[in-house]
């Protein structure tokens, strides 16, 4: 094993421990268990609430106008793009989407335009300065984006990735380092998991297939949100069997989904187009998984000793998320919520689930059917609509399925579309429906055993 200075060990251990604490260590607060990153974001969100909406408009305007201007300014260096290139040289679809996000946000903040857009259940829900998803994303992106290098730049992924590859690769078709993504999402927040997956993909550490698998299989909602969902459907006393069911469904789905369409058809090539390299996961002669992981970790820590690189990488993450991702969430999230609020499309789309729920022996199948699809718009809608159903079994199933679906356009779904992760809207629709169909019988079985 190559010898490193004691200081290199310090550069590996201390920043990695800080990253574990910030992103993966639940802390009990008055609002429940939260990771420190989320706590910091909540504190800042409260402080900047009076101005956050206007700051959001400013960032959306820069995003949209910059993308429009880039259409008429030739790129200087295609092979080595600058941060401005990566921010603004996007195709027409994403340029128009950014403009739509700006228009929607402006309608809400300055109170003009159709009621369907600027009311409290659609655009207003996303742009609420006191806890709206889009405005909150600006604070969570600030901390998560800037401090993410603690997890990614000092060897933690390399250390655990080498040891976990024997579990992650055969079970979930993903590299060992994705275990950190999974844990970060599970105890923290799904948005942080998507952010981390996107950055690892852009850095060439995940292939297109691996990034798609990780983003749609491990970006789970937090434990805190699970508690809120269960409380909404009046079953808080059943949290332990409920959460165990969610965990079991999550594992089953993470095993099945990478092996079927559309994830199985994704290219196993890196962002630069090179094929997957499994050799990086093989143990050299004379090494075990711990010693090889430690050497890989120390090599990465040694290469990232310059604090200026940490600041540069973190700042670039934040700007990229503010400019490139947040407007997309606003655009797609608002459209999805408008469809849920003002049309019967989810009632119609939910009709095919009625006979399925009936076959599974769930009471009030007609009332529950739309909750199976409305979660595509927002993760909280199924539990709100299902709260009035009398059957404990049916409400339990709704609560489980709404959490295991994962693809919510008002959060994770919109976020994925805003990143470079190679997943299209149609992919997300198919993944959402498949996750629903697979988790539904598991939840129904447990529900019948429980009640």
Highlighted features:
451 residues; mainly alpha; two-stranded antiparallel ribbon
| Radius of gyration, in angstroms, nearest whole number | 22 Å
What's the overall average pLDDT, rounded? 88
Strand order in the largest sheet: 1-2
User: How many H/I helices?
Assistant: 24
Strand content: under 5%
Task: Name the overall outline.
Answer: globular
Outline the biggest β-sheet: 2 strands, antiparallel
Overall structural class, as computed from helix and strand content, comes to mainly alpha
User: Percent helix among the residues?
Assistant: 55-70%
Number of strands: 2
State the distance separating the first and last CA atoms: 57 Å
> Uncertain runs with pLDDT below 50, 5 residues or more?
none
> What is the string of SSEs from the N terminus onward?
HEEHHHHHHHHHHHHHHHHHHHHHHH
Describe the structure.
The protein contains 24 helices and 2 strands. It is mainly α and 451 residues long. A hairpin with a 2-residue loop joins strand 1 (27-29) and strand 2 (32-34). Helix 2 (36-70) packs across helix 16. The longest helix is centred in the last third of the chain and has 36 residues, at 307-342. It is globular, with a radius of gyration of 22 Å.
SSE inventory with pairings:
Elements: H1 6-24, E1 27-29, E2 32-34, H2 36-70, H3 83-88, H4 92-109, H5 115-118, H6 123-127, H7 133-147, H8 149-152, H9 156-172, H10 178-187, H11 190-202, H12 208-217, H13 223-232, H14 239-256, H15 289-303, H16 307-342, H17 345-350, H18 353-359, H19 365-369, H20 371-374, H21 381-386, H22 392-404, H23 412-418, H24 425-450
Antiparallel strand pairs: 1-2
């Amino acid at each position: 094993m190559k010898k490193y200075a004691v200081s290199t060990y310090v550069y590996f251990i201390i920043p990695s421990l800080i990253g574990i604490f910030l992103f993966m260590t639940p802390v009990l607060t008055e609002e429940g268990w939260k990771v420190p990153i989320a706590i910091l974001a909540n504190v800042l969100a409260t402080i900047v609430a009076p101005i956050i909406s206007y700051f959001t408009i400013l960032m959306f305007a820069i995003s949209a106008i910059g993308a429009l201007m880039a259409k008429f300014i030739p790129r200087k260096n295609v092979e080595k793009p600058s941060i401005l290139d990566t921010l603004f040289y996007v195709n027409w679809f994403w340029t128009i989407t950014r403009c739509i996000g700006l228009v929607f946000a402006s309608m809400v903040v300055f109170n003009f335009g159709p009621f369907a857009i600027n009311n409290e259940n659609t655009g207003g829900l996303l742009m609420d300065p006191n806890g709206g998803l889009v405005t909150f994303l600006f604070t969570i992106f600030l901390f998560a984006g800037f401090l993410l290098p603690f997890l990614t730049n000092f060897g933690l992924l390399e250390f655990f990735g080498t040891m976990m590859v024997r579990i992650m690769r055969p079970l979930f078709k993903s590299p060992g380092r994705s275990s950190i993504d999974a844990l970060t999402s599970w105890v923290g927040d799904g948005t942080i998991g998507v952010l981390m997956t996107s950055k690892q993909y852009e850095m060439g550490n995940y292939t297109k297939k691996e990034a798609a698998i990780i983003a749609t299989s491990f970006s789970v909602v937090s434990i805190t949100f699970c508690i809120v969902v269960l409380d909404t459907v009046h079953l808080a006393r059943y949290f332990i069997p409920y959460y165990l069911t969610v965990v079991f469904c999550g594992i089953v789905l993470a095993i099945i989904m990478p092996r079927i369409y559309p994830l199985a058809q994704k290219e196993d090539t890196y962002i630069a187009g090179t094929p997957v390299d499994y050799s990086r996961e093989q143990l050299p002669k004379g090494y075990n998984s711990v010693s090889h992981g430690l050497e890989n970790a120390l090599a990465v820590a040694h290469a990232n000793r310059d604090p200026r690189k940490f600041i540069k990488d973190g700042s670039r993450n934040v700007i990229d998320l503010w400019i490139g991702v947040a407007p997309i969430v606003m655009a797609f999230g608002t459209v999805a919520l408008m469809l849920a609020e003002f049309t019967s499309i989810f009632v119609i789309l939910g009709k095919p689930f009625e006979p399925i729920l009936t076959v599974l022996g769930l009471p009030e199948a007609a009332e529950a059917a739309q909750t199976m699809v409305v979660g595509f718009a927002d993760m909280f809608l199924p539990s709100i609509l299902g709260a009035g159903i009398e059957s404990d079994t049916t409400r339990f199933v709704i609560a489980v399925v709404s959490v295991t679906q994962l693809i919510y356009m008002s959060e994770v779904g919109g976020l994925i579309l805003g990143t470079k992760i190679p997943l299209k809207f149609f992919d997300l629709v198919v993944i959402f429906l498949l996750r629903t169909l697979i988790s539904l019988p598991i939840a129904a079985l447990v529900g019948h055993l429980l009640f």
